[in-house]
Specification:
5 helices; alpha+beta; globular; 156 residues; single chain; binds adenosine-5'-diphosphate
């Protein structure tokens, strides 16, 4: 029977790290800002089911804003509207966190009320070249809540 420190630790969601619960970038649904909101793109967006979609410029490490899918309600696919007209450019709206932030840290960031989605960014210094910032995932309030609910189940 496991009653020791590991279980107590597992119940303390605040000590878990972003890395453990984030959605890794390979699973993130993102769009290029150069896309047009035609029928094909809109179908893919609605089928994804996500309410917020990171939008990138050069590549996935260059996320410039978020698309809120609720803003697309009145879009006419025949207009082929450029996605860039719909992107809410970050300003102060989206936060960036490190993978080794604790969930307690992120919750504090979310409580400040800017957004409940954060980009997870790390420094990639693995290669020969200069280190660069790399988007490694996203984390939302939902990911933290899941962890808290998971803890309660362990608790029972
Ligand atoms: P939504 O409102 O879009 O359902 P939530 O904030 O409820 O998003 O998060 C639900 C799960 O989906 C979380 O695990 C979160 O990390 C993930 N998620 C949210 N947006 C995206 C996205 N654009 N691509 C991939 N996963 C996402």
């Amino acid at each position: 029977v496991e009653t020791g420190r590991e279980v107590a630790g597992a119940m303390n969601y605040k000590e878990h790290t972003v890395r453990e619960v984030m959605t890794p970038v390979k699973d993130c649904f993102m769009l290029s800002v150069s896309e047009k909101l035609n029928f094909k793109t809109l179908s893919v967006i609605f089928k994804s089911g996500f309410s917020r979609i990171p939008v990138f410029a050069k590549d996935r490490n260059d996320v410039i804003g978020l698309l809120f899918t609720k803003d697309l309600i009145f879009i006419d696919p025949d207009d082929e509207t450029p996605l860039k007209n719909f992107v809410q450019i970050f300003g102060r709206a989206v936060t960036v966190v490190w993978p080794d932030f604790t969930l307690g840290d992120v919750l504090n960031v979310f409580k400040q009320g800017k957004s409940h989605l954060s980009l997870v960014r790390d420094v990639n210094d693995a290669g020969e070249g200069d280190p660069f910032y790399e988007v490694v995932g996203i984390i939302t309030l939902e990911d933290i809540i899941e962890e808290i609910l998971g803890d309660e189940i362990v608790d029972e």
